[in-house]
Amino acid sequence: MFWKWCFRLLIVFVGLWLFLDLSSRLGAEIFWFQEVGYLQVFLLRLVSRGFFWVMAAGTTAAYLWGNLALAQRLKYPQSLKIAEVRKEEADLSIELKNFLSPQYSRLNATRIPDGRTLKPFRLRWLLPLALAFSLLAGLILVHYGQIALSYWYPAFNNNNLPTINSFRLETIWQLGSQLFSQILYLGLIVGVAIAILIYSQFFLRAIAVVLSVVFGIILFDNWAKVIQYFFPTSFNSTEPLFGKDISFYIFSLPLWELLEFWLMGMFLYGFIAVALTYLLSADSLSQGIFPGFSSQQQRHLFGVGGLLMLMVGFSYWLSRYELVYSPRGVSYGASYTDVTVQLPAYNFLCVAGLAIAFYLLWRTIFWRSKSRYRQFVLYGLGVYLFLVVATGQILPTIIQYLVVQPNELQREQLYIQRTIALTRQAFALETIDARTFNPLGDLTTAAIQANDLTIRNIRLWDQRPLLETNRQLQQFRPYYRFPDADIDRYTLETETPADRPANPPQSTTPEETGGEATERRQVLIAARELDYSEVPQEAQTWVNRHLIYTHGYGFTMSPVNTAGPGGLPEYFVKDIADNEEGALSTSSEAIRNSVPIGQPRIYYGEIANAYVLTGTRVRELDYPSGSENAYNTYDGLGGITIGTGWRRGLFAMYLKDWQMLFTRDFLPETKLLLRRNVKSRIQAIAPFLKFDSDPYLVAADANPAFPGNNNYLYWMVDAYTTSDRYPYSDPNGKGINYIRNSVKIVIDAYNGTVQFYIADATDPIIATWSAIFPQMFQPLSAMPVTLRSHIRYPVDFFSIQSERLMIYHMTDTVVFYNREDQWQIPNEIYGDKPRPVEPYYLITSLPTVPFEEFILLIPYTPKQRTNLIAWLAARSDGENYGRLLLYNFPKERLVFGTEQIEARINQDPVISQQISLWNRQGSRAIQGNLLVIPIEQSLLYVEPIYLEATQNSLPTLVRVVVAYENRIVMAQTLEQALQGIFQPEITPAPPIIRPFEEGTPPG
Predict the structure, then answer these.
(1) Among 467, 430, 480, CA closest to 569
(2) 413 CB contacts (<8 Å, ≥6 apart)?
């Protein structure tokens, strides 16, 4: 009795804990979304996901349990002994009979319920059939369970979305071979099969429950596919095979595939569970014989089999449209074999499957216990299975090898053209403006002076050496860290105006700056964030983690093209000042006027991952000031007020932080700041978007769009709408075959405010999401001009497009088939190892464009060759934002590629000797990014060289290498190197090539 009461108390305690846990999660999420202003988004997601879970789980449970309950009523009792078994047992001795069946005398009187003579299943047929059904049930459980687990716990699938593979007849073998090849899955499947054979009633029902939960989870996590179906936006473009608008494939087909995936699994397991219930009744395995299916059992099997065949027919109907994703043939999408053989086969299998399904369902409704045509059902199913294999696998393979491959170009030419056209559409390659660029090699000193703004913005500092230097010179305390350095451009006051104007339509005018001349400068900006993991272990207490170490402080801003004394970077903004200059030190009055700083506290950033509590009795560490520290009290708009009341208990339960309940440091105005990592913050609000890997910091005055008290630091993040359902579009390595940079996101680094702006209003997917969440997105024109001048073409998007362009710049089908003009990304030497060139930002003027602008650029070389063949540029300023320009070099002349320039640098006897001298014990030379810079109708190659110590690294810029045409020069500064190239007769030799004279290696 005591243990019984203990068990009941345990059940009550667990139930209460689950209730409080779920309630705290719901309450905390509601408060958080209310704080960020997107409560409507959360509630719509919550209600829709909850509804889909209940619908899927409830429908699955009702169907499977209902059929299992009916099968339990119609199955043979375990006490049944048919005549053949009784005859065999009569020949045994009484001792053996009693040993085999102690209740024989009582069981002997049992008769088959309907009294009919049925065809029994002997053990040689019964055991393989029961084992096959049991293994198939285990395969279903493992397959669907693996997908659900991948949704519930993404790390299980390496954080990749699981692929919903429909459980069709022709894919069962493929899935089985994949799962059986892994020992864990093989053990699970075999274990489930054995458990079903031994304890069929319990495990068949248990699997039904598990599958109900699994299907609920799958629909729960695929809520976006369902809800998008009801808000489709036309693409105003059709695919050529079926003539349907592409919106059908993006918004409708995924829902039908999801329903087929769910219902196929439910109906297939329902049929297997019912069949096993009957086959394992009457103690059939122990007796070694099954009496045969009774009339009512056959009627039940006809019903569940009819529903299964209905779904099989529907599955082949969907397979017709999925041919546009076929990998068969020389190009992606429906090929000659798919269209001429596979499509008619799917049409036939769809019609035949539906015909069999309707016949089975009709016979179920209008059942006759005696029918001479009943055996033809098995014959028909056997013929259908044969046709599935013959038309789905054998015939297409024969046609592909005997008809297509001997005449492949002729047969596939139409389909290659479709793949080219739709892939270019899906990756926005058809909008690229292709031009011819013929380097003339006629740059002069006058041309260099005329392009002075371009020269002053050539990037000599890469992110890596600058970050290493920052960490040595600007972190000040172990708990500060610079996680990244971002390239941007700022309009700065200057005493001398640039010879050529920079373009941004939003650029600051002289009137707006009190008549001061301005120019655009490319800079590297790095946020000084708080990294609590670097706090000494002895000081990592609860109070320090959540109440004292709450925020980072300030940033550094460096020009990309200059170095200070000793080769260290110069800083426009640096240090922590706290003086009359402001919170941070600036290099000049012009910088103070150009770069807004205000209060540069960073409560939301790239590193922040712990919640903090502000407005408590404990003062927050603001920044180190000499031998003491300065302290601050957060007065921003972010955070959830928890005070000292019931909210305190709710968030203590939600965060599983019980010290929140017992601390005496809370005040009525105490706030909780959650999700301070900018990526996790926007991911929680808009999980249906893909986000760029590189949020970047912007210093700008964005009031009144972002209200606050003198806070000017913002994070900008690019977001993408993607799909893997664009017809005929060849997917990249991550499975994406459609992408648009549709959204720009701005996050206030002090208040945590998040705003979403639509950057590409022509994208139908973002139009659909805007219709679903009408209050979530704003037009790009609503973004403050001060922030809009800092938007840039994102590297991730550009990398995907440039990778696809390596193949899909070939629009001629013959050239594409031969792959005769395929490109590749060239290599460069970074440090002392080769690596692919990464896209890089420049401020330069494009050929035929009379002004400098901020562009993103990457060069190409022909496949397996090293000379330049083209370069792709993306524009980022004003009305030209998002425009892509492709400059093709003449194929009949040599244009040096990055690998050829690197070879010339390392083969130069003086340069290589100098690098070898630096690479002595205790130091090493680092060759930085080799930049290919277009200036007028010529190309200039620039590579910085850094020197760093092997310990306590503090990289310094020691040389700049410039190559032009057949000339190559290394000097201490870019200006000296350019003089050596264009004015060799007046340039003294020592500044060009000379040993490092700054003394011992830094660090």
Answers:
(1) 467
(2) 813, 814, 817
